[in-house]
TrEMBL record:
This is Osmotin thaumatin-like protein. It comes from Mortierella isabellina (Filamentous fungus). Residues 1-20 form the signal peptide. Disulfide bonds join C29-C233, C139-C203, C150-C166, C170-C179, C180-C190. Residues 236-255 have a biased composition (Low complexity). Keywords: Disulfide bond, Signal. InterPro entries: Osmotin/thaumatin-like_sf, Thaumatin. It holds the Pfam family Thaumatin. Residues 236-262 are annotated as: Disordered.
């Protein structure tokens, strides 16, 4: 009986190993990166230091779900001691994320690039051993080659004053209408805030806010891809994104908006530290942007 149980356990282990998937973590940035891999429900990531031009392969369970990211000018020690500059990404220290759920609904792998909290490095996901299907969202390769411009009010700086990352409207302002929470917890009521369209314009494959599903979710039949290659700086550069003085990427002109003042692009108005399109948003109390026609926002 013990021998039989041992054989069964060995067979199950071999089956699990046979169906395991790999991450190939590739660094095309000009500097070494510290890549983190964190399983959902866990609090401590596994970290991998990857030299410029090199890659590391990580084996994962067939039903694994979680995310991966990378940072420059961090190491394993600083990941534990300097959470502002390094550590697990969150609203105060965002990073460009690659998110995965293996063997999800319909026996599909789900994956995406997320900049919902912000971004720090260009990034790409490529399925291994699978060809793109009838649309780009079936076994396709989402990519963000060039980061969006970062407004000065959304910058996250290192202790030396260098640009570390760029926050999103949600992570910086923590407003329900930007974070898709409370009364805005649906695709019909949330559009992510005034900066989300700028993220989407620069990186159309990535999530720019929580309900950006229709143009950001990728799937691949679970038995098709043997793994996924995640490449940071796919174009071979790690230059930080340019910084503007306000939440806009258009040419600046000085003027006063309805509820705020400052330097905004042509056709935009100022609201506190942000610039906005008056056709889409209303400035409340001089510092809160609300979608036009929204009766709940700001009250």
């Amino acid at each position: 009986m013990r021998a039989t149980l041992s054989l069964i356990a060995s067979a199950l282990l071999l089956a699990e190993v046979a169906h395991a998937k790999n991450f190939v973590l590739k660094n095309l940035c000009s500097k070494p990166i510290e890549a983190g891999v964190l399983q959902n429900g866990q609090s401590t990531p596994n970290y991998y230091t990857i030299a410029s031009g090199s890659s590391t392969t990580v084996s994962l369970a067939a039903n694994w779900a979680g995310r991966t990211w990378a940072r420059i000018d961090c190491d394993q020690a600083s990941e534990q001691s300097n959470n502002q500059q390094c550590g697990v990404p969150g609203t105060p220290n965002p990073a460009s994320l690659a998110e995965f759920t293996f063997e999800g609904s319909g026996n599909q792998d789900f994956y995406d690039l997320s900049m919902v909290d912000g971004y720090n490095l260009p990034i790409e996901i490529q399925p291994i051993g699978a060809s793109q299907g009838s649309t780009q969202y079936i076994c396709g390769s989402p990519i963000c080659k060039t980061l969006p411009t970062c407004p000065s009010d959304l910058t996250v700086l290192t202790t030396q004053g260098d640009l570390l990352a760029c926050q999103s409207d949600c992570s910086h302002y923590n407003q329900p209408q930007y974070c898709c929470t409370g009364a805005y917890n649906s695709a019909a009521t949330c559009n992510g805030g005034p900066y989300a369209p700028m993220i989407k314009s620069a990186c159309p494959d990535a999530y720019s806010f929580a309900y950006d599903d229709s143009t950001s979710t990728y799937t691949c039949p679970s038995g098709t891809a043997t793994g996924y290659t995640i490449t940071w700086c796919p174009s071979g550069s790690s230059t930080p994104p340019p910084v503007t003085s306000k939440t806009t990427t258009t040419a600046k002109s000085t003027g006063t908006g309805s509820g705020g003042s400052g330097s905004c692009g042509s056709g935009l108005s100022a609201c506190g530290a942000a610039c906005y399109n008056p056709a889409q948003y209303t400035c409340i109390n001089g510092n809160t942007l609300c979608p036009s026609g929204d009766q709940l926002c700001g009250n």
